[in-house]
Amino acid sequence: MSSNAQIVISQFGGPEQLNILTTEIPQPQAGEVLVKVAFSGVNPIDVKTRAGIGWAAEHNKNNLPWTPGYDVSGVVVKQGIGSEKFNLNDMVSGFIGFPLRGGGYSQYLCVSETELALVPEDISLKAAAAIPLAGQTAAQALEKAQIQSGETVLILAGAGGVGHIAVQIAVAAKTKVYATCCEDNKSYIEILGGTAIDYNNPSELEALNHVDVMIDLVGGEAAIKAMACLHPGSRVITVPTITSSMVCSHAAELGIIGMGMLVEPDTVQLEELLGLISAGMLKVEVEQCFAMNEVAQAHLKIESGHARGKILLDMQM
């Protein structure tokens, strides 16, 4: 334990603006622990921030180079004064520094123990890094929609990081679940218990009607077109903040209840999600895990819009 490598945004722009800096390993303050990070999740918000879009970019524009990242898993290697929640060598998972502080793209990270959850021994650290932001976004979107047994739910981008979790939670809630995806992911959606809708085949979406709830993980024109499947009184939860007002305005014109949302880190909820994974009731898909020096490729993968499940960084490679 001699140095700490961190991935930073040097300036806003393309993936080439992501660089690795070496710094000293931080020391935990009171109530904090030092985590040796195993894996860090890569999320669409990281890509938008790197491009200079959104709240985190605006907040940190005069604070570059800045380290992004909100999902982490790893091992507690040092405790600050008064830190009692975890023991040394405990495996932990966290949804940290959201939305402005970030910091997850680090090999070592000091974080308040209140932001972390204990990882059960039967869960891999990959799965533990994949669930915090995506799992809580999926769970909170469905909670906000107040889905009821027997309802029909449409999830846009159902094979993605948030989507594949949302499909499973909605199926477990005994709703009829439809999910948009590409042709290659149709069988995957069926395995999760949903009915796949190929977003490249407009006739499949047009054939769907009287949907009660739509979870919009895409935003923009795709969300507006998909609202043709809904009926007056249906509920739309739209997650992409950039197009939220546009989507909600269009929903109102159709007599549909439109609501935006911003996920809120909740350690108790994270512990519940980890418990579901441990019990075999929730499966987390990790399509690809990139080495630290491949972070640009990881961002390009997210930007392609074709990732199945989550994309991770191996912070020790």
UniProtKB/TrEMBL annotation:
What Pfam family does this protein match (any one)?
ADH_N
* Name used for this protein in its record: NADPH:quinone reductase
Q: Name one GO molecular function term.
A: oxidoreductase activity
Q: Give the matching SMART domains.
A: PKS_ER (SM00829)
Q: Which CDD domains match?
A: MDR_like_2
InterPro entries in the cross-refs: ADH-like_N, ER, GroES-like_sf, Lipid_raft_assoc_Zn_ADH, NAD(P)-bd_dom_sf
- Organism, by scientific name, is Vibrio rumoiensis 1S-45
Q: Which residue ranges does UniProt annotate as crossing the membrane? A: none
**Can you tell which superkingdom this protein's organism belongs to?**
Bacteria
Q: Where is the Enoyl reductase (ER) domain?
A: 13-313
